[in-house]
Amino acid sequence: MAFVITSPCIDEQAADCLDVCPVDCIEKGEDQYLIDPSICIDCGACETACPVEAIFHEDELQEEEQSFLEKAKKYYHL
Fold it and tell me: Domain 4Fe-4S ferredoxin-type, which positions (predicted)?
């Protein structure tokens, strides 16, 4: 998994990331947007487009946001 959408998305859900993703790997989950790691090409376009800075590379996740990595894996059955 390259990028992970974290907690600020739950309150915002601006969806700017959808418009810039060249491979359509982002979809709306129950309470936030999620990135499909099997489709993501690690381009970073979503990270820079997010108005609330909710998207981070997996290697840069803060400890308190690690649960969002697991949430995405569960959502995509990985």
Answer: 31-60
**What are the chain's domains?**
3-75 (3.30.70.20)
Backbone conformation region of residue 15, classed left if phi is above 0, alpha if psi is from -120 to 50, else beta:
left
d(CA 18, CA 26): 6
β-sheet bridge partners, residue 3: 57
Q: Does the predicted TM-score (pTM) go above 0.85?
A: yes
The tokens describing 6, both together, are 């974290």
The Cα 4–Cα 70 span in angstroms is 10
Closest among 12, 45, 7 to 26, alpha carbons compared: 45
* Tens digit of each residue's pLDDT (9 = 90 or more) over 40-53: 999 999 999 999 99
